[in-house]
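User: Run a structure prediction on this.
Assistant: Running it now.
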Amino acid sequence: MSEAEPKVWRLAALVPVLAAAAVHGWARWCYAAAAAPSAGVALVGGAVLVLGASVLYFVCVRGTRSLFGALFLALGLLLTVTATDQAQSRAEVAPCVVREVKEQVTSSAGEGPPNSRTIYRHLLDCPGGYPDELTEERRLAAAGGEIRVAYDLRHRVSPAPEGESASWTAGLGAAVLLVLSTLVAAAGPFRDE
């Protein structure tokens, strides 16, 4: 083992942490900032970060395990983007008054008895006029009641009741995969001879 090898695999153990921070910052800027880049620039920038970090990791770790570590890293970074998007997509919250609740029963055809479900359309009065409707599979409030609605100012995603668009599942998945890729790199160098 040469003098440079221990430094290289130590660098590889830092790649997941640094890459996750960079990807999170990039995604947060792309999703939340008023001066966000165009969709094409956001996609290309994110792809360069994810692929660049995975290639750097693969080159630093070396050996058969580098493929698995780089795969864990890439998937963890993609889940980081997903968690950031979910956290930022409905950043605004408005207290809305329910004007009316409309019920609609739908049924589907298929094997077995027809399954029916009830959809509740809550027509809302919100400050600023948006959102004006919230559709759920359960009644959130009766007419005249108040609902706190989380929404996106740029209307990229549909509104949801406050607290129901949690990003913890994607964040947890990202953390597990990033820790796995760090552990693969931190295991130290070994020869594939």
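The mean pLDDT is 83.
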